[in-house]
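USER:
Before I trust my own judgement here, I would like a peer's view. Write it directly below this note and I will take it from there.

ASSISTANT:
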Amino acid sequence: MKATMRAARSRAAKTQTAALSPTGPLEQLVSAFGLDTVLLATVDAQGRLKGKEYDAAQLVERLRSGALSPEMCGYVLGTDLGMTPARTGPFSWQSGFGDVALLPDLQRARLLPWLPGTALVLAQPIAGGWPHPLAPGTVLAEQLHRLAELGVVPAVGIETEFVLYEGTARDAAAADWRGLRPAVTDNRDYGLDQPPTVREFGRRLRQVLATAGLPVEAVKGEGAPGQIELTFPYGEAVAACEQHVLFKHAARTVADEAGMTASFMAAPSTGVGSGLHLHVSLADFDDRTMLAADPQDGTELSERGGQAVAGLLAVLPEVAPLWAPYVNSYKRLSDHSFAPARLTWGRDNRTCAVRVVGHGRSLRLEVRLPGADANPLLALAAVFAGIRHGVEAGLKPPEAVSGDAYEQREVPLLPQSLEEAVGAFEASTLAGELLEERVVAHLARIARMDLDHHSRVVTDAEVERGLAQA
């Protein structure tokens, strides 16, 4: 009887908490927090929220009665960074830009404290009653499913870097994007003496994310002027990606309110690089670590851990558009930049592409290749595809690098440009096998749109170099 009463009290407490939680079902959120706006959104190929804004009460009523079957123009899944419509492909002028159906996840509605009176409902693009095969979330889900078939369950922690600039994006556009001033003028890496505007930005960002049920593990100054690094706690892969997408939305909003701009470019200026480091651990269905040879306190990789590292080194250069999607992305990958330049791995070695860090149950792989501009859903899909290939093929890694990996001249370089990366991606039999040919064709098409854009644009650097000398 006592156990039954405790269970009943527990259920009641959970029900009450759900009604007041910032992550409760939609109708409870609207009622408990007096919301007037709901954003119904999906995640595009660039990792941004795209969707429509609804009156909260009307949306709840229409969803309750079944009067709303959400859709949006399918081109949101197939444009480039500047929302350029594609000429060919499934979301293009050729296809007629038909709609894509959306399946809202009402049970995971979330309050957005950085937007007054607003909640978010994420929706999954649907095709023929199934998850749309080209949606970023589906690409990731497929890799998670394939890992599960091997008895592997990954956990993920994401840390990202970005640069804060004085003035809003509108101010920068009005000045033709010239004269950008970082919010900090010097290197404040690990510095606890940040300017008041930067400290207040960090405090406000942590507060709104915590209220949204997205607590931040740590915030620190990084090495470039105005650069900040933010780390989230470890967790399930899809949830880690969702919190990262929402974090970027919040950071841009909070920065704009403070008269600043948060930039997630991989290389926002010459010599500055911002990364998206993916920390990945692997466990079996009983939550036993699969990476450490000694699960108690060891730092040596198990056989499965070595296979995972070898698979990452083999696959990631062939699927680079998933983790480095733009022309600018490759300007970060340079010697002695704290971004990797060669296909190396090492133990607690930040000069490597894959850094093995931690010990025992906390042993994990830090994949340092993606830039801050990467879509975390696609970048993680690439990582999981690499791990899967390593396990399935029983690969063995090369020797770990213990010194300066940039000086390992016999080790292949990472792709040097988007053009090189897309060519390798399209030609890769392995990429087609791991990701499906239609996914490769779709993402390569989007990457080539970025190449086409830049091929026609005269840059400030070209003018500076050639105006008086050519």
Remarks:
- The longest strand covers residues 153-166.
